[in-house]
Give the backbone structure.
Amino acid sequence: MLQQGDIFFGRTVINHAAFEFTSSLLNRQINPLPVWTIALPYNIKKIQQRAFVRIDVAILVQIRAINADEMLDDTIINASTKDISGGGVQIVTGHKWPIGTKLMVTIHYPQIGSLTLKSEVVRVFQPQYELAVFWVGIRFLEIAEKDRGNIIKFIFKKQLEQRRKGWE
């Protein structure tokens, strides 16, 4: 049990973002509810909670929506990735799908080739309200581990290239 004045490390989630911090216990009470009063936190750090490393890179993608019968829509939307990971992509597009929309996403990875993956829209953000441009977060629903491994290798290679450019 912490005593008054003890320093501790904490973690909290605010608006789907996780943070670690250091603080100290000012006071605690048990009744009627357990409550800790803590000092203003310091050494606050946002922590990455993603299962896969993500990297900013622009790659051509083609997207087709899947209807309720798992049939592909005839409309193909061309877009570009904003970032990629082994678990999904974020694309930049003028098209806004509702969260939960199922998609077939074809990504044209350099050195890997094209991968077509069943996916789902998990996030939609409009960075500038005056422009009809959306950042759409897409999670891969079905992906072979071999393909995921190739994507992760591609990401690590891109990270190495970016670091080398930073050293020059």
Notes: Helices lie at 145-167. The chain has two domains: 7-47, 54-167. Residues 7-47 form one domain.
